[in-house]
């Protein structure tokens, strides 16, 4: 099977753009999702006494369907809901109302813009299903969503539009990472970036294989050496309508499929998930496409380092030494530590372009995945203000992070006897830290933050706004961080 068009792989996310939205103070005659706190307002004819008797208290992650002609769904927010609680409640309510494609969501009259954004994200992402390869569509996609609130119309509508943009970014990142390797190569991803970039008025530049050689992307090409598929480097540029508040570089790992190279991975379930090893590049592409809708004020440049990592007679061997864009040499002591090698070229290019700061994102290390599990991404960096800003963006986006120390006393673990540095420390050393130190070598003093999403890019959870498979993690974080960046 092959897609008739390279954009067919992103069907689910593109459908979000066709959902019609209303903001109204008058409840429409259609199924409604009520997001309610304990003892909060209820639909006419419904009482807390009967709800409690039925086992519904309005607590977090509780849902109750009211049997009525309009099929009200009540989703609990808890007594003092956080933004995450609102997003979770919206997702659970959307699922409970999933047979309905025309939906209204009841919100308090004092709702904030941040909550409106999160609610829209939860409603839309709960309906996400990657079904591009199925004979029949899965689930029930929304066609119309009304937000029912007495809050100011224009502010609510603007916040809802931002929610649509951020949900769309996550859905697109999910689409790309969920697409199997035999349907999404580096060259095909580059074509998608060109086409979608044109729709979003981004500048897009693609370097094909020979251009990558001419431009000395030795790290990218070393990992590509065993593949029959060509590598691609994609540079995207967003220019704001006014004077830029700064210039931000975003570097994404785009390993379209990671076999481990000549140091082959074990044949287990995690190996079968390696189509998602390009989740970092997917998050950056998706976030940058949403920047116009988010009214980003900074110039943002994205660097997508795209190839697969395959074994063959031409593959890079253990102990090989390669020279990357920076001019420094790298001893490849482990071909399954490939992400940092391709990222080194992207970081060098960002430095050359004179960006004010760099944020990179990658499914980089099993060490971070083991340390923080599937709920927390790792974050570190060289600039405390930048790291704090990205961490705040992650928290507000419902993509929480935990700090990885950039402990420079581990830097000697990268010492090579034959090259400027090696791509992996000795066995038993903390690779989450050492991999970050490796990347830091190529930032040349530019403020830098690093997101390791190895543990959070894949999930088995199927509840609320979360769906099993590739999570699209990082897209909302990168969008929020980039939209508000100031040098």
Give the biggest sheet: 8 strands, mixed
Strand order of the largest sheet: 7-8-10-9-13-17-14-15
Any idea what the CATH architecture of the largest domain is?
3-Layer(aba) Sandwich
- Classified by CATH, the class of the largest domain is Alpha Beta
Counted by DSSP, the helix tally is 15
Bin the strand percentage: 15-25%
Report the mean per-residue pLDDT as an integer: 93
Unreliable residue stretches? none
CATH topology (fold) name of the largest domain: Aminopeptidase
Instruction: Assign an overall shape.
Output: elongated
What's the name of the CATH homologous superfamily of the largest domain?
Zn peptidases
Keywords: Aminopeptidase, Hydrolase, Protease
Protein name: Probable cytosol aminopeptidase
Pfam family, one: Peptidase_M17_N
GO molecular function: manganese ion binding; metalloaminopeptidase activity
Using brief descriptors, characterize the structure shown.
single chain, 487 residues, alpha/beta, Leucine Aminopeptidase, subunit E, domain 1, Aminopeptidase, 2 domains, 8-stranded mixed beta sheet, 6-stranded mixed beta sheet, 15 helices, elongated
């Amino acid at each position: 099977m092959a897609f008739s068009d390279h954009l067919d792989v992103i069907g689910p996310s593109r459908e979000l753009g066709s959902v019609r939205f209303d903001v109204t103070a008058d409840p429409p005659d259609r199924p409604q999702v009520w997001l309610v706190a304990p003892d909060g307002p209820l639909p006419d004819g419904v009482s807390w006494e009967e709800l409690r008797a039925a086992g519904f208290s309005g607590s977090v992650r509780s849902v109750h369907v009211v049997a009525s002609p309009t099929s009200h769904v009540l989703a609990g927010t808890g007594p003092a809901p956080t933004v995450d609680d609102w997003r979770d409640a919206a997702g659970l309510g959307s699922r409970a109302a999933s047979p309905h494609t025309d939906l209204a969501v009841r919100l308090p009259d004092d709702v904030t813009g941040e909550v409106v954004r999160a609610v829209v994200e939860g409603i839309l992402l709960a309906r996400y299903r990657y079904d591009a390869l199925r004979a029949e569509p899965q689930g029930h996609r929304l066609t119309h969503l009304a937000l029912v609130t007495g809050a100011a119309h224009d502010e609510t509508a603007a916040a809802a539009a931002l929610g649509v943009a951020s949900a769309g970014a996550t859905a697109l990142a999910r689409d790309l990472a969920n697409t199997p390797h035999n349907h999404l190569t580096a060259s095909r991803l580059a074509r998608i970036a060109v086409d979608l970039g044109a729709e979003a008025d981004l500048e897009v530049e693609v370097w094909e294989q020979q251009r990558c050689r001419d431009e000395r992307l030795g790290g990218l090409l070393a990992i590509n050496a065993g593949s029959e598929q060509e590598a691609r480097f994609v540079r995207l540029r967003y220019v704001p309508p006014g004077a830029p508040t700064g210039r931000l570089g975003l570097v994404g790992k785009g390993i379209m499929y990671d076999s481990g190279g000549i140091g082959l991975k074990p044949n287990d379930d995690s190996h079968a998930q390696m189509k998602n090893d390009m989740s970092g590049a997917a998050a950056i592409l998706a976030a940058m496409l949403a920047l116009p809708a988010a009214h980003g004020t900074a110039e943002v440049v994205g660097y997508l380092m795209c190839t697969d990592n395959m074994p063959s007679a031409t593959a890079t061997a253990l102990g090989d030494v390669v020279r990357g864009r920076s001019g420094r040499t790298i001893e490849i002591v482990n071909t399954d530590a490939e992400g940092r090698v391709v990222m080194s070229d992207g970081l060098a290019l960002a430095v050359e372009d004179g960006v004010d700061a760099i944020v990179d994102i990658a499914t980089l290390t099993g060490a971070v995945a083991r340390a923080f599990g599937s709920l927390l991404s790792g974050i570190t960096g060289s600039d405390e203000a930048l790291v704090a800003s990205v961490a705040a963006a992650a928290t507000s986006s419902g993509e929480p992070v935990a700090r990885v120390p950039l402990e420079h006393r581990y830097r000697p673990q990268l010492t090579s006897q034959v090259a400027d540095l090696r791509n992996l420390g000795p066995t038993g050393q903390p690779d989450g830290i050492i991999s970050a130190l490796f990347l830091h070598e190529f930032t040349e003093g530019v403020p830098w933050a690093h997101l390791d999403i190895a543990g959070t890019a894949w999930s088995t959870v199927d509840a609320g706004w979360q769906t099993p498979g590739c999570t699209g993690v990082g897209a909302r974080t990168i969008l929020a961080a980039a939209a508000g960046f100031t040098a």
